[in-house]
Amino acid sequence: MSENSVPIIDIAPLIGCDRAHAQEPVQKIRAACCEWGFFQVLGHGIPDTMVSRVWQNTRAFFALPLDVKETVARSKDNPRGYYNRELTKNSRDMKEVFDLGHKPYPELSDDDPVNLTRDGHNQWPDAALLRDFESTMMEYYHTCEIVALKLLEVIAQGLGLPSSYLTQNFIDKHTSLLRLNYYPSHDPLAATVKAAASGHLGVHHHSDAGALTMLLQDQVGGLQVFRRQQWFPVEPVAGALVINIGDIVQVWTNDLYKAPLHRVLASEGQARYSLPFFYNPSYDTEYYPLDVLTNGTSPPRYTHINWGEFRWRRQQGDFADYGKEVQISDYRIS
């Protein structure tokens, strides 16, 4: 691979528990976390048939009339569902999204009181319009859980830690989010004042708030990562998932691994779709620089951060201008 290309790593030995060949991808992921904060993985084990169904349902949902999509619209109180005025860095992104997340009690309805989380509850379009949408997206969501957990174990191993060292606040109680992104080839809100001031980007530059993100992207392209004072494209690779580490990993490693700035260019001439899975811990998680990575010569650079509070403040900034968008820099020790 070129020095200017995000690393592509075959993780089949990790998924298949091939101990004889597992060390090589562990070390490659460590190097990628140090140098890029981004990498792409092949051999992740997600079946092509599942991916095909996910793409089919994603395109079908965004092709619905606007008034139908708005029947499952997000709100300030329930940030799951459809939205077309997402903010990043207090600027509107040129895209539409649909968000879904963890359902604590799958046997009960999504709006049952016990399924109302701090991130709201799942909303679904009419099954008469999209028969397989809910089942397909939840199946993919749970598959992403498995792959993300394995990658978090590998990140721990790359730091010289036991594989389970970072996962205790994720297993069975994580607060992860699956997002469906649609970047239209033209801005449907271009006539509005707010759109004119948006900067004309699909997603403005940012780092992800959680532990890591797994992205399924189509072949159109547009994702870029900032490295060495330049923006580099994350070129689509058939069958690959794009992985980037988030702010939590940066805090854990006391800045050894940096959560990378990235952005998405606005689509021109051809629509683009992508599905990021944001792997996040339980709401009550307190994260801070790991004791094993700090000492007298490398003291902690961050105070303790509560994920539930941090996530809520960040999502309020994403939905609308409800105050300053919180960053881990707000918790940095001077």
Write a concise synopsis of the structure shown.
This protein has helices at 12-15, 23-35, 48-62, 66-69, 133-158, 193-196, 247-252, 307-319; strands at residues 8-10, 38-42, 81-83, 87-88, 91-92, 96-101, 177-183, 201-206, 212-217, 223-227, 230-233, 241-245, 262-265, 272-279, 286-287, 305-306. A hairpin with a 2-residue loop joins β10 (223-227) and β11 (230-233). Helices cover 25% and strands 21% of the residues.
Keywords summarizing the entry:
334 residues, alpha+beta, Jelly Rolls, eight-stranded mixed beta sheet, four-stranded antiparallel beta sheet, 8 helices
Kindly describe this structure:
The chain has an eight-stranded mixed beta sheet with strand order 1-2-12-9-14-7-6-3. Strands 8-13-10-11 form a four-stranded antiparallel beta sheet, with no helix packed on it. The chain has a two-stranded antiparallel ribbon with strand order 4-5. It has helices at 12-15, 23-35, 48-62, 66-69, 133-158, 193-196, 247-252, 307-319, and strands at 8-10, 38-42, 81-83, 87-88, 91-92, 96-101, 177-183, 201-206, 212-217, 223-227, 230-233, 241-245, 262-265, 272-279, 286-287, 305-306. The longest helix has 26 residues, at 133-158. It is globular, with a radius of gyration of 19 Å. The two termini are 38 Å apart. It has one domain: B-lactam Antibiotic, Isopenicillin N Synthase, Chain (Jelly Rolls), CATH 2.60.120.330. It is α+β, with helices and mostly antiparallel strands. Helix 3 packs across helix 5 (133-158).
